Amino acid sequence: MTSNQNPFTQSIEATDNFPYGFAELEAAAKEKLPTPFFGYIQSGASGEETLRNNEAAFEKYALVPRFLNDVSNLDTSIELLGKTYDHPFLLAPVGMLKMADEEAELAVAKAAANYHVPFIQSTVSTYSIEEIEAAAKNSPKWFQLYWSRDEKVSYSMVNRAEKAGYDAIVLTVDTFILGFREEDKRNQFSPLKKGFGKANYETDEAFLQSLSEHTDEAVIQKIVDHLYHPHLSWNHIAELKKRTSLPILLKGILHPEDALLAIENGIDGIIVSNHGGRQLDGVIASLDALPAVAKAVSGKLPVLLDSGIRRGTDIVKALALGADAVLFGRPFVYGLALEGQRGVEKVLANLIQETNVSLTLAGATDIASAKRMKVTRI
Ligand SMILES: Cc1cc2nc3c(=O)[nH]c(=O)nc-3n(C[C@H](O)[C@H](O)[C@H](O)COP(=O)(O)O)c2cc1C
Ligand SMILES: CCCCCCC(=O)C(=O)O
């Protein structure tokens, strides 16, 4: 994508009253959403040390720009797993989006399609794989898999995603049990128990066969049972690979040794992530984990990052520290809560504009040059 717009004009083009910065966005979503819904989305696990550190990590790194480098033509496109995308970011998988808006993933997938940004659908989404494909036909979509205790259900969902034309499988490895989430305990709230994440299960033959009763309660209880999978190991990865021709990425890698094992096990990409500080608290911030992981991988597979991306300058820092692309979650969920599909589009438009301005001011002409940019630890 080439950016020919003149930011001197853009900077005084007030769009409307839609919030710009993340803090404003979060505050507006807090006003709008019921307390337990907002609490579920915003909070982290335990004492929220990691939630805070994810954002703080970006402030410990400073960009060192280059000038006089003819940056009049910016190309922000990336190539990932054989496909080309317009921007160096994707929408992270976020489950149970009906908490934010009735249209939930349908609205997000349509917004993402309009900007040619890949949408990663969560296993526990409010609408099914097939409903989302029908709403945003032929747009870039990946499927995030929560391994199921009944592995027939995992394989069945992966096959459905493949049949529906999804481009990749993202297996989340850090949520085999749920983190200790104090805010949800305080609010006595579980969106799963409300039924917001059951669409992919209710429409799955293998899941339906595992049910002995078909009441709403029995369905939800069975989903809870299937989601519990602490036995997940590299052996399952080998089996999963046999069942699909789609590329497989692992989401939740933080240790360089696990990144090396991913290569050994034939994985196609990794996502350096601590789940937005929602799983194990006190873990390394994703950005702090990135340089060692990128060094270990040394270009053998794509390295993506999420957790704490809030603005364009964060994206540039992540690229400079070794990421090939990034994902973000809460910012688009707040956009969804505020104005549905339009709100997600506004978040995307602002992020694209800020990323493009930041890349250009830092002296980059494309993503490869952003990845060579100097960053210093302060
Ligand atoms: C409300 C909420 C629900 C989430 N649901 C999922 C999910 O279903 N699957 C998954 O792999 N990650 C899930 N995540 C984690 C995100 O994919 C991502 O790792 C995280 O949001 C990144 O941090 P950020 O919100 O700071 O950008 C969820 C995050 C939030 C905030
Ligand atoms: C309560 C249901 C568990 C699904 C996990 C969704 C998720 O990844 C997150 O909330 O984070």
From TrEMBL:
The keyword Oxidoreductase applies. Pfam families: FMN_dh (PF01070). The active site is at 275 (proton acceptor). The keyword Oxidoreductase applies. The lineage of its organism: Bacteria, Bacillati, Bacillota, Bacilli, Bacillales. Its cofactor is FMN. Residues 14-378 form the FMN hydroxy acid dehydrogenase domain. It catalyses: (S)-lactate + O2 = pyruvate + H2O2; 2-hydroxyoctadecanoate + O2 = 2-oxooctadecanoate + H2O2; mandelate + O2 = phenylglyoxylate + H2O2; 2-hydroxyoctanoate + O2 = 2-oxooctanoate + H2O2. Coiled coil: none annotated. FMN binds at residues 93-95, 122, 144, 172, 251, 273, 306-310, 329-330. Its EC number is 1.1.3.15. It comes from Pseudogracilibacillus auburnensis. Glyoxylate binds at residues 40, 146, 181, 275, 278. Belongs to the FMN-dependent alpha-hydroxy acid dehydrogenase family. It comes from the Bacteria. It is an enzyme of class 1 (oxidoreductase). This is L-lactate oxidase. One of its GO terms (molecular function) is FMN binding. Keywords: Flavoprotein, FMN, Isomerase, Oxidoreductase. PROSITE patterns: FMN_HYDROXY_ACID_DH_1, FMN_HYDROXY_ACID_DH_2.
